[in-house]
Amino acid sequence: MIMRIFQVRTRPGKEAEFATFFHETAIPLMKGTDGIVEVLPGAPHPDTPREFCFVMVWRDLDALKAFVGKDYASPHIDPAEAELVEERTIRHYELVED
Q1: What is the count of structural domains for the chain?
Q2: pLDDT values of the chain reduced to their tens digit, one per residue, 98 residues
Q3: If both were cysteines, with which of 41, 57, 61, 82 could 37 make a disulfide (CB 3.0 to 4.6 Å apart)?
């Protein structure tokens, strides 16, 4: 399984608008995506009030590519968030199961 960690930092002053997008659009979209085994959304912490993240566990790389395309190492951007986000990072790991 593939663990995908997606982090965003909002533009200053866009936190509330992004939070609405995050809760009403992004979380339901990711939870309903075929090939995702688990979604762990992360909202801002007081020390990092502009940062949001997703930790997603994908069944396999083929399922991830089916959703984001062949260039899975680049952050997938919903047009609704493009103007709200200052920075995006994406990382992939092989999930270690006990």
Answers
A1: 1
A2: 999 999 999 999 999 999 999 999 999 999 999 999 999 999 999 999 999 999 999 999 999 999 988 998 887 777 878 899 999 999 999 999 87
A3: 57
pTM of the model: 0.88
Question: 18: domain range?
Answer: 2-94
As given in the structure block, the two tokens for residue 76 are 């997938």
In this structure, what token pair is assigned to residue 22? 């995050």
Q: What is the domain-level CATH number for residue 65?
A: 3.30.70.100
Q: Give dist(CA 86, CA 98) in Å, integer.
A: 37
Structure tokens given for 52:
């949001």
